[in-house]
Amino acid sequence: MLDMHKEELLIDSEVHCHIIGNRGRNLLKLMDMFKVDICFPRSSDPNPDLVVIQGAEDDVLEAKNHLLQLEEKYLLRNFELTVEVDPQYHSKIIGRNGAVISKIRKDHNVQTKFPERDSANDRVITIIGHEKDAEAAKEAILKLVEEQEDMHKEELLIYSEVHSHIIGSGGRNLFKIMDMFKVDICFPRSSDPNPDLVVIQGAEDDVLEAKNHLLQLEEKYLLRNFELTVEVDPQYHSKIIGRNGAVISKIRKDHNVQTKFPERDSANDRVITIIGHEKDAEAAKEAILKLVQEQDNVQIIEEMEVPYNLHRLIIGHKGTEVKNMKELYDVMIFIPPIEEKSDVITIKGPPENVAKVKEALKEKIEEIQDNEKLYKEHVYIDSRVHSSIIGNGSHNLLKIMNLFKVDIRFPRPSDPDPDLVVIQGSEDDVLAAKDYILNLELKYTKIKNSEYFFK
């Protein structure tokens, strides 16, 4: 250790990582090559440039010279200059998928940094490399800009609503147009003051051809967005839509239009909107009105007496029963509001279908009335434990009903007695189910009381 020579030298901290290399590989090679120990400063050291070499004197001096040469090499490679370029030319300098700037980087062995859009320095492009290479890359960029400035530029106004159609998904349509006419086309950004202003740049003849093409596209898409409305009684909407949307899909396809139906019970629930070329939209409107006329011509209206207290069961939970019946028999069924206490249900549809619905309703009424003749027990169960007996998603209740082959009705929030539970079925099954539920009540009440006591 007494023969060891130690040398301290200052190496710009900016190039340390290049000398050290990934995971210290370059540094290990250097230490093996010169048979020395080289220590680079830690982040906590007072002098970030101080490097220490230790070993035999001749080896240390050779290693020192080599490190200084590496420093000079990397510093030269990190020469940095900037060039100011109007942001409108940045996309041309970068090129499609970065092709133009990649060639400049490769040809001149440099790196480049472009500014963030709309930043304070959005004109400044930075070039990094050997000074000579960076200057050459700068000249290449300025030459590109000069070529762009010499090109013919045309500004035109295209209605912003059709921009997305012209540009296409992922800009595909726009790229095709630019390739076709050999021009550059810039659509406005959301922050631009004029949302309709489009700029075309290129050779004069190409620019004029591209301009005419864009104006034709604008006219085409604006015509396609012609909109008209047709008022149709909501009772016919399901017929116009058809099973699984089959009827309206055919109208859309035949006439090349789009349609919008109103929300149910909205203020404009009669208004159907049609969008497309004016001629196509008018034809689609006629097709819809013809359907409505046909429905009026072939349909009959019949009334049927159904006790109003059974209407709730005919309608079903959230209207599912009556909706299924309408779809199954392709008819309209009008059930009066419960407050009217009317026994009359109105059915509208083709004669054969109306007859089938009436028969189905008769069977449903008989089924309900048969159920009402079954043995029935009223049981008072503490409402606090109803949810425990019913279970999540009525899972427990369904198990009990299947086990005892009975129907069990728990009260609704609007019912006058919150504790009253009704069990219906054969007498033996009802009594067995009653005992089972009373035992559950006792069990869950004890749990509730203990929870209250230990609060």
From TrEMBL:
InterPro entries: KH_dom, KH_dom_type_1, KH_dom_type_1_sf. CDD domains: KH-I_Vigilin_rpt14 (cd22417), KH-I_Vigilin_rpt15 (cd22418). PROSITE patterns: KH_TYPE_1. Coiled coil: none annotated. SUPFAM superfamilies: Eukaryotic type KH-domain (KH-domain type I). GO terms for biological process: regulation of gene expression. Pfam families: KH_1. It comes from the Eukaryota. GO terms for molecular function: RNA binding. Residues 3-72, 77-146, 150-219, 224-293, 298-366, 373-442 form the K Homology domain. Keywords: Repeat, RNA-binding. This is K Homology domain-containing protein.
